[in-house]
Amino acid sequence: MRILVTGGYGQLGTALKEVLKDEAVLLTDSDSMDITDVDQVGKVFNDFKPDWLVHGAAFTNVDGCEESPELADKVNHLGTKILAQMCKKADVKMIYIGTDYTFDGTKDSPYTEDDEPNPQSVYGRTKLEGEEAVQEILGGYILRTAWVYGEGNNFIQAVLNLSGKMDEIKVVNDQFGRPTYALDLAKAIYDVIKKEPEVGIYNVTGGGDVISWADFAEEIFKIVGKNTKVTGISTEEYFAGNKDKKIAPRPAYSALDLTKSKEVGLSLSDWPSSLKNYLNK
Ligand SMILES: NC(=O)c1ccc[n+]([C@@H]2O[C@H](COP(=O)([O-])OP(=O)(O)OC[C@H]3O[C@@H](n4cnc5c(N)ncnc54)[C@H](OP(=O)(O)O)[C@@H]3O)[C@@H](O)[C@H]2O)c1
Question: Which of 38, 114, 228, 254 sits between 20 and 30 A of 279, alpha carbons compared?
């Protein structure tokens, strides 16, 4: 199987490199294939001749998207449209990675694939427009995920770094969801490639209890044996010092329902065991 990966050196791309090691994989970044450059995309498709495209590239800095909405639209929406058109032309199967920021977060039970999106941020809106482009042009797979951590800078590394410098850290306790280990997401993507379930939207996150970021920090410290105190604060308090910066609204609740993905046999793990695997790696 020949698999082209965008965002090949991001958190997900790094995990895909490990999981897809027995396949012919081409990892790309914005230098080797800028997804907004139709000629460059065409050349890579022509040279590599993929069977599948896993599209993980995105402008993922959610506050950066509020500051630069044109760039967010260009990368998350129009870049995705270019890729979907290329997949259609070259008969390549496409997997697009969607986000929990597609929802407004007002629900109090996990969002299913059929729930109505209502993004509140530029990031969420442009990622949803990417989804819509994939569905309209190609009818590809959309895998929606949330709270991803893997190799690179992420929440876990941030709280561990802070715990090296202070005895108490403040973490938001009014956003609820479920963390996803990038390696688990990569395995579920490989399952889609191998099993080819019916084309459509699938939720792919860690399973287990729905938690807040403060709960997550406490669990991290418990596993690594640190005594750092976690004090829960509201999102509003957390961003109080950022008056001059545009801050993207975060969904207060963004757990995704995993029933459909489990039914088609995507491998999903509960977040507590995945977190242990990550921290012990
Ligand atoms: N992280 C999360 O919590 C989360 C949650 C829900 C959904 N997602 C989605 O999951 C996917 C993977 O996330 P991630 O955390 O692995 O992201 P990441 O680590 O931020 O990696 C994204 C990659 O996209 C690439 N990229 C940006 N602009 C590009 C362009 N114009 N052309 C080509 N590549 C470009 C970047 O490569 P360069 O460095 O070369 O620019 C970067 O390495 C994304 O689609 C994201 O929207 C993530």
Answer: 254
123 ligand 1 Cβ < 6 A: no
Residue 248, in any domain of the structure: no
Report d(CA 257, CA 207) in Å as an integer: 9
Q: Helices 213-224 and 155-163, interaxial angle, to 10°?
A: 60
Which CATH number belongs to the domain containing residue 8 in this structure?
Answer: 3.40.50.720
**157 vs 173: CA distance, rounded Å:** 18
C-alpha pair distances (Å), 265 with each of 3, 49, 163: 21, 28, 38
Characterize the bridge pairing of strands 180-181 and 201-203: unpaired
Cα(60) to ligand 1 centroid in Å equals 5
141 is catalytic: no
**Domain of 58, in residue numbers:** 2-154+178-207+254-269
pLDDT at 218: 98
What is the per-residue pLDDT for 241? 82
User: How many domains, the chain?
Assistant: 1
Q: Which helix (H) or strand (E) holds 263?
A: helix 259-263
Q: One of 9, 101, 123, 238 is an active-site residue; which one? A: 123
Average pLDDT over the chain, rounded to an integer: 97
Top mutation candidate among 38, 55, 60, 156 for ligand 1, by most atoms within 8 Å of CB: 60
Q: What is the pLDDT of residue 254?
A: 98
Residues 239, 251: Cα–Cα separation, whole Å: 15
Asked if the structure places residue 111 within a domain, the reply is yes
> Is residue 30 lining ligand 1, measured as CB closer than 6 Å?
yes
- Whether ligand 1 lies within 6 angstroms of the CB of 148 is answered as yes
> What pLDDT score was predicted for residue 243?
80
The answer to the question of residue 232 being in a domain is no
59 in contact with ligand 1, CB cutoff 6 A: yes
